[in-house]
Structure formats: structure tokens, C-alpha cells
Design a protein that fits this description.
Largest sheet: 2 strands, antiparallel
Low-confidence stretches: none
Strand order of the largest sheet: 1-2
Shape: globular
Membrane topology: Multi-pass membrane protein
Number of strands: 2
Transmembrane segments: 63-84, 96-115, 160-177, 207-226, 295-312
Protein name: Sugar ABC transporter permease
Distance between the termini: 72 Å
CATH topology: ABC transporter involved in vitamin B12 uptake, BtuC
Radius of gyration: 20 Å
Oligomer: single chain
Strand content: under 5%
Keywords: Cell membrane, Membrane, Transmembrane, Transmembrane helix
Structural class: mainly alpha
GO molecular function: transmembrane transporter activity
């Protein structure tokens, strides 16, 4: 019984760790899409943030400077997306896809040019990474049956970005649904003309949403390279930006359900690591490639089953032209 509890606790612990970049990217997309900006470029921003964070940490030896660099890279990409979709009123989907291609090529090119490691950054250690934090009394309560083990393994022992991601969910819900800024942000995604008529700048609000988006997704990218891992490797975002968008649609653009969906994806990812190499009755050993594809298969199923039922903000993806 105790071994089963240990296995379950370890899987749940992995679930939390693997869900963090999804949560941050999903919340990032929530702000932009609530403001009427479709952000397919979350994948590229995650990748750019991861590369910038790892590069800065490797050069300076500071994880905090790496975090700022990751946010800065995401801000640059958000600025390009805003310029294309808000100022030039271009197609937001095409702009986002272009950013994804740009990030994939640019990170590989710069990684090879700067570090001569085939696109990889040097391995990070010590203060170059965000290390786990042991919460008060975690060691003392470790031997307490069930609750002590849950506190030690599942709640304690995570890095600061992990705790930030979970705190960001209720904060996002409060900002969007309990503040004047959140009301205006949601209104600009539903009826930008009404906001404009009230004398509020649609352009400013949408850029503010993109700035918040960049900060969150930049932190998510930094988590991948200087918290979850010990450096950057090619394409390390591995489709997480797209999965976050699928989670956002499935959650119908609400923070609480978005957290649950991201945890579901994280759980599936954690399980696939645990069952690799396991032999099952009748079917035998499942190929590793099939197991690794599970999160992406679930993404397709969710999109196919729920995208028609989920109602996006009415002005989502539609450039706004001020009437004169």
C-alpha cells in the first residue's frame, strides 16, 4: 500500500512540474484572447523566452537575470505581433505562425553562433538555475504517514516559478472579473467599438494585454530552461504553446478551468514517462513513440470535440478600425 502511495505522489509531483509551463502559457493566452488578440505565437514566445533565459544565465551566472531576459525576449515577440495585428491590422493567425517559425530558426542559429554546441546552451548549475525551495517543517513532517509525505513531496520542494504559476491563477481571475481594468479588457474583446465610444483607447488596452501575455509566457519559457531543465536545447517548447491554446479553448477562456485542463495535460505527460517500458496484458509493451504522442492526441480530440461548443470573445481575431 505504501509503495502505491509513493508512486501516486511521485506522479502527482511530476504532474505539477510538467503543468507549470502550460499554466503560464495558458494564462498568457487568456489575457490576449480576452482582449481580442489571437496569439498562436505562444509557442514561439515560449521558445524564445527559454533560449534568452538560458543564454543570459549561462553568461552572467544569475537565474534572475536569465528570467528578465526571457521576459524581454517574449516582449519583443509580443511587440512584433502587436505591430502586425493592431497597428497594421494584419491577420493575427499568420502573424503568430510566422513568429513560431522565427523563434525556431533564430534560437537554433544564435545558439550555434554563440555557444558552438549545435544550438544548445552550456549546462547550468548553482545560481544559474532556480532551485527547489524546502517549505517550513517539510523535513520534520516527512515521516508522518500520508499527509507528511504529500506535504514533503507534492507541496514542498518546488522552485519559485512553480509557486508563482499557481498563485497567478486566482490573481488572473481577480484581475479579469473583479477590477475595472479586467472589465475593460474583456469588453475590448467583445465590443471594441463600445470601448472606443466611451473614450478608452482600444489600441492601448490591447497592447497592455500583450505586455501581460509576454511577461507570463516569458516566465514560462524561462521555467523550461533554467528551472525544469539545466539549459536550452532545440525545440524544447515541444508544442506546449499549442497545447496551452487547446487548454484555453477547452476551458472556455476561464482561469480556473484552464488550471484544471493544464493539470490534466501535465498528468498525462507524467504518466507517459512512468509507463514507458511497461508490459501490459494482451497488448504487451506499447511503443515509446505511441506513449509520447498521448498529450498531442488528447489535444486533437479536445479540439475536435469542443472547439465548436466553445464561444470565443466576439471580437477575437478581428482588427479594430476607429471610425472617423
Amino acid at each position: 500500500m505504501e509503495s502505491y502511495l509513493v508512486d501516486i505522489t511521485l506522479i502527482l509531483d511530476s504532474t505539477v512540474r510538467l503543468a507549470v509551463p502550460l499554466i503560464l502559457a495558458c494564462l498568457a493566452g487568456l489575457y490576449s484572447e480576452r482582449a481580442g488578440i489571437v496569439d498562436i505565437g505562444l509557442e514561439g514566445k515560449l521558445l524564445a523566452g527559454a533560449f534568452a533565459a538560458a543564454s543570459m544565465s549561462a553568461v552572467t551566472g544569475s537565474a534572475w537575470l536569465g528570467l528578465l531576459a526571457g521576459i524581454g525576449a517574449a516582449l519583443m515577440f509580443s511587440g512584433i505581433h502587436g505591430l502586425a495585428s493592431i497597428n497594421f491590422k494584419g491577420n493575427q493567425t499568420i502573424s503568430g505562425v510566422a513568429l513560431n517559425f522565427l523563434a525556431a530558426g533564430l534560437t537554433t542559429f544564435l545558439g550555434q553562433s554563440w555557444f558552438k554546441r549545435g544550438g544548445y546552451t552550456p549546462q547550468l548549475s548553482g545560481d544559474q538555475r532556480f532551485n527547489p525551495i524546502t517549505l517550513p517543517f517539510a523535513e520534520q513532517l516527512r515521516e508522518v504517514p500520508i499527509l507528511g509525505q504529500i506535504y514533503f513531496e507534492l507541496i514542498s520542494g518546488h522552485n519559485i516559478i512553480t509557486y508563482f504559476a499557481f498563485i497567478a491563477v486566482p490573481v488572473t481571475a481577480w484581475v479579469l472579473f473583479r477590477t475595472r481594468f479586467g472589465l475593460r479588457l474583456r469588453a475590448v474583446g467583445e465590443n471594441p467599438k463600445a470601448i472606443d465610444t466611451a473614450g478608452i483607447s482600444v489600441t492601448r488596452l490591447r497592447y497592455q494585454a500583450l505586455i501581460i501575455t509576454a511577461v507570463l509566457v516569458g516566465i514560462g519559457g524561462a521555467y523550461l530552461s533554467i528551472a525544469q531543465s539545466a539549459g536550452f536545447n532545440n525545440n524544447m517548447s515541444a508544442g506546449r504553446g499549442y497545447i496551452a491554446l487547446a487548454a484555453l479553448i477547452f476551458a472556455k477562456w476561464r482561469p480556473g478551468p484552464a488550471l484544471l485542463v493544464c493539470l490534466m495535460f501535465g498528468f498525462l505527460d507524467a504518466v507517459q514517462f512512468r509507463i514507458q517500458g511497461q508490459v501490459f496484458p494482451i497488448i504487451g509493451e506499447v511503443p515509446v513513440q505511441a506513449i509520447q504522442a498521448l498529450p498531442y492526441i488528447l489535444t486533437v480530440i479536445l479540439l475536435a470535440g469542443f472547439i465548436g461548443r466553445a464561444v470565443a470573445p466576439k471580437a477575437s481575431g478581428i482588427p479594430y478600425t476607429k471610425e472617423r
